[in-house]
Each structure stands twice: as structure tokens, then as C-alpha cells.
């Protein structure tokens, strides 16, 4: 179905190739995960499958990419539209219409599909992705996760033979992500659809895929093999695999179910060991508070009477299903969303939005960093130093819009964090970040909290919450339904518990690093 023969891609002005001599064969009816570090070339590989690279992106493509017998050198993206469906990282960038139902129909209209068939497929897709209640909603008023489901649905309605997805679950809550991935797996098994997806949150995906393609970046060769084989040899692995490595299990488990069965002895060894508390050690005065906050859209409130305080030294994770009001809460705290009623009290606030490119205006990374230094009144080079800490090796001459989504996020984080506002707000701060970049972000956030700043994360990344949160607030339908220390809230939650907590329950372990540390102490 898909053949890549010695494919190399070099963008204009770049000193080295993004991809180098890639040989890959993907047969019909496989679900393949493309993984790699932020900026390694995953998105370039995906975009080469439907001709966006090089016909839209520019640059030079050497070698051959053949999809369903069509060579992308001679077939432009429009010539492959009936075969390859593509969903990028930013759903809004691909939308053409104004509401959900019209967007689902647009691709079929472009292909000239009969109206009665279009109507049937729209209804099937609305049900398949849980969008029926949103059919008439304006796309601009949907949450990021809802927009992502619409983008996937708009491609599925055209019934492509190959589906290419770039970070398809990054803005979805855990249950919605599992539903989407299970749906894709069902399409693969029942209809023979070929699915190629890039995803950083490996803990969500590895149990569904047949194969993993690891793109290490630069001139290093691409690895291709069974999930367990590839994950055992790379520095990138989900928590369930990290736990297996710490416990010395072989073969390594890929699912919570497998690891749970293997963990009986491990849990017995740690019965008398107390897990780390994951609580804020020095919590001082409030840096922000809301009182009976009601906010949202005209005639449609999203937040219904939220009363909440954030203290300096806290790292608060705000969780909840898509559309629960997480982003609206953050935007209200920073003053971008005017309350309908109630009160918001906050001092100096910095917000990294869900779409980081909203903060990027300069013509180069170097200019963005210099502007941020001046605005924050900090020594020159401060923003660049923070960027290198989050995502090292980004060329200062690159245009910010040409960066990968993870690199854009790192740059936006550096711009906001360099000013060290008393309250730092991060909306889905790990979209596009690999595990190594996420660990560096965790270090930065801990440093901020340790120096008296308050941090609020709106996130679906349960593994990030397990690593860094000292407090978790769960929203549902615009109301607070849970508020407490991270272990107290997430361990008992089927939806928001991290992988290690599910494996080690009822013991309150949250991360593989916690377990590895306890095992090391026991051996000492």
C-alpha cells in the first residue's frame, strides 16, 4: 500500500536533511505508529505520504514515495485526496466551513459524492466520534479536543484507503482518546483501512498498533519493527515499559493488563514502602482566586459558579473531559474571558495558550527570543537559554512557523516563563512534546513552584499530572467535582489514573521513577 524507497527530505536553507535514506514498506490493513523526539522529522514523513512534502512545503525530496500505486512526485495532494486522508496537528488550520455538520460534508462535496451518500456518512461519523450533540455548533466555539474529533471525522467521511494522523489524541481527554483509537483499530480490522499516525503519548497508542517506526532524526537510520522490540532499544518509552525495565521484566509489557498480571510480586515487595507524597512543600499566600465565577459564550455559560484559589508554590492540574471548561477557566484568570458574573482576582499572570503559534510574531527564533528578553527586562540570552533547556538545538535563523509543533510550544513556553510571572497558566503544555522534553518541562515547573510561583496546568496528560502536580482539580459541566492532593484524586479515578497507578493499585504509586527509586533503596 505504501512504499518509501531511499527517501530523503531537505528544506531550503537547511544544512542537513530532515529525513535521510528512509526505506519503509507498509502493507494494506496495518496500524503503524511513527514515533521520535520533538523535531526529528515525524511530521515530514507523514506529509510525504500525501504529497504535501514537497509540493506544499517546498524543499527537495529524493527517492520515491508510492501510495496505492501512485508516485507522489507526479501526483500532487489533490490527486491523492481520494486515497489518503490527512489530519494535521492544528485542527483549526484545516477547517474550511463554520460548523460541525458542514465541515464533515465538505470533503465529500469536493470529491463529488452523491448527496444521499453524504448525508448517510455524516450521520455515521457523528455517531462514531460522539459528535451528534455538536452537529450545529460553530467550530470556533468547540474545545480543542472537540475540534480534533471533527477534523478526524471530516477525513473519515471521504472513506480514504490510507489515513494519516499527526498527534490525533493530543487534545483529547483519556476516554475520548481511547474511543478514537479503538474506532481506528476497528476500521483497520473490519475494513482493511491502513492507518499511519504520529503520537508522543505512547501510553495511549502502543496497545493498538501493529508496528512502530522510530524516527531518530538527522542522518540516523529509521528503525522499524514490533512495538516491544523497538521500545526496548530506544530512550523513548511509555510508563508501562519504564516500569517493566525497572522491575526487570522480560518480555516487556505493553498494556496495563499485562503489567498488572506481572506485578503481583512487585507489589508484595513494596507493601511496606510508603510512596512519595507528591504534595507542595511550601504553600504560601494566594496568587489568584475566583469567587462564584460564571463565564462562557453569550447565552451559553461554560463555567457555572467556580470558587477556586491558587497559592504560591502549588502546581495545580485542571482536568476534565473535553468541553468541561478548562481553557475558559485559564482565559478568565488571565483576563481574556470576561466573567458574566462572579469575581476573578489575579496579579501578574502569564498564559501559554493551546495553540502556541498565537504568541509567535517575529521572523526568526532569534528575534522572538530577543523581543521576549526586552519585554521581560531580563539579560540578553535569557529566553534562548530557557529554550535550549526545553528543546535544545533549534536554529535561531528558523522562522517560528516552520518549527515542529513541539518546538513551537517550547519557544512559546520560554517566552512566557522568562518573565517569571507570579501565576503561570499552561493550556495543554505537552502537545507535541516527547518524553525527554516533557521531563525538562517538569524540571522548569518545579523550579518555578520552588521559588514561590503558582502554576496551573489545563491538561489531559495524566502522566504529566503524575510527575509534577501537587494538586488536582477536576471539572465537569463547568463545576468543580474534585479538588485535592494529586494522589488522593487520580489514584481512585479510572479515567485520570496514570499507568503506574493502575498497575500498582491499591498502593498509591504514580510514576515508574518512584517505583525504581524504592527498589533501589530496598537493594541498598
TrEMBL record:
Location, primary (coarse class): membrane
Q: Which SMART domains match?
A: AAA (SM00382)
Q: Name one GO cellular component term.
A: ATP-binding cassette (ABC) transporter complex
| Bilayer topology annotation | Peripheral membrane protein
Domain ABC transporter stretches: 2-243, 288-502
SUPFAM superfamilies, per database record: P-loop containing nucleoside triphosphate hydrolases
CDD domains recorded for this chain?
A: ABC_cobalt_CbiO_domain1
One example GO MF annotation: ATP binding
Cite the entry's keywords alphabetically: ATP-binding, Cell membrane, Membrane, Nucleotide-binding, Repeat, Translocase, Transport
The subcellular location is: Cell membrane
Q: Which Pfam families match?
A: ABC_tran
Q: Which family does it belong to?
A: Belongs to the ABC transporter superfamily.
Tell me the function of this protein. Probably part of an ABC transporter complex. Responsible for energy coupling to the transport system.
Q: Please state what the protein is called.
A: ABC transporter ATP-binding protein
